[in-house]
Design goal:
Layout (H helix, E strand, L loop, with lengths): L1 H17 L29 E10 L5 E9 L6 E2 L6 E4 L10 E2 L2 E11 L8 E7 L2 E7 L21 E3 L6 E2 L6 E8 L4 E8 L32 E9 L4 E3 L13 E8 L3 E11 L12 E11 L6
Parallel strand pairs: 11-17
Antiparallel strand pairs: 1-2, 2-6, 3-5, 4-7, 7-8, 9-10, 9-12, 12-15, 13-16, 14-15, 16-17
């Protein structure tokens, strides 16, 4: 739907100007905030705002609301437990939202499944960070429909992820826990994924000649062409810190797109990690909600084994 693409592009422009959610994304009962909606981007001390990407219809007739966020802190990741400062209502406060917020704009990091008869109902996501409250509204307005599984213009589709070579495939927005791992505090757990991507079906631009880059950086140095597909791991939920051996592991095309890293945890408990696969369209599909894939995996971390 090309019309939807232009609507989303306009919404992104509002994000850039306002530094926050598009106009009309105030929560119910919340007084309109002065423009811009929140503090400017800074190293620390600024706010986090949820980002409603839009909605799409599932094959079973239900509807998924696709949601991301914008952390305006360049050097401050935040942990905000589910509760009064991180809640989605009605039906919450826990509806699968993150409790760990990476810096910058994170696209489509979780989805909320609602029934086919959701109609004119709304959900609101409240996030309080650094003493600042932001509320967004999620709804089924027709201009917010998205197509996360296929780009209507060039028929591009999201990368395909597997957590086992012969396991199920995952593509597009996250819908459930894709895999579960077990480990102990300070014991690295191996995370292996396989990723493949078909790329756009039509209107594919010709790649630059070998050795030639696409443009130049701010310093004047040539920019390398973007990788055809890449993966990255990050913490989504959990009580403690997570250290990845390599959060963006290399992909071995000769091994079927295999990418391996490890994660180490400093506290016992249950964690959810997010695995994101991007194709050439980049983060958020360049703002058009296609084509990238997010998958969630659970890691159950037990207390450290006694050395005695």
């Amino acid at each position: 739907m090309l019309g939807g693409r232009f609507v989303l592009a306009g919404a992104l422009l509002l994000w850039a100007i306002a530094g926050g959610a598009p106009t009309g994304q105030q929560g119910r009962g919340q007084a309109p905030s002065p423009f811009p909606l929140s503090n400017a981007i800074r190293e620390r001390g600024s706010s986090v705002t949820g980002a409603y990407e839009g909605w799409d219809r599932n094959r079973d007739g239900s509807i998924s609301l696709l949601v991301g966020y914008f952390n305006r802190n360049m050097k401050q990741e935040l942990d905000i437990p589910v509760g009064p400062q991180n809640q989605i209502e009605p039906g919450g406060p826990d509806q699968g939202q993150p409790t760990h917020f990476l810096t910058g704009r994170q696209w489509g990091v979780f989805s909320i499944k609602v029934p086919n008869d959701f109609g004119n109902q709304k959900l609101t996501w409240t996030v309080v960070s650094n003493g600042q409250t932001n509320v967004i509204t999620m709804h089924l307005k027709p201009e917010w429909i998205v197509e996360p599984y296929e780009d209507a213009a060039n028929k591009n589709t999201p990368p395909v992820l597997k957590l086992a070579a012969d396991g199920p495939s995952f593509t597009g927005p996250p819908a459930a826990i894709a895999a579960t791992y077990n480990t102990s505090v300070s014991e690295p757990v191996t995370l292996t994924a396989w990723v493949t991507d078909e790329g756009p079906k039509i209107n594919v631009p010709e790649p630059p000649p070998p050795g030639r880059s696409r443009g130049r950086s701010s310093s004047g140095a040539p920019l390398p062409p973007p990788p055809p597909v890449s993966v990255s791991w990050s913490k989504f939920r959990g009580p403690g810190a997570v250290v990845f051996e390599n959060a963006k592991p290399a992909i071995d095309k000769d091994a079927g797109g295999k990418a391996t890293t490890t994660a180490t945890f400093d506290e016992a408990g249950e964690y959810i990690l997010r695995l994101q696969a991007n194709d050439q369209s980049g983060d958020g599909g360049g703002g058009f909600q296609c084509c990238w894939t997010n998958a969630h995996v659970k890691v159950v971390v037990k207390p450290a084994t006694s050395s005695r």
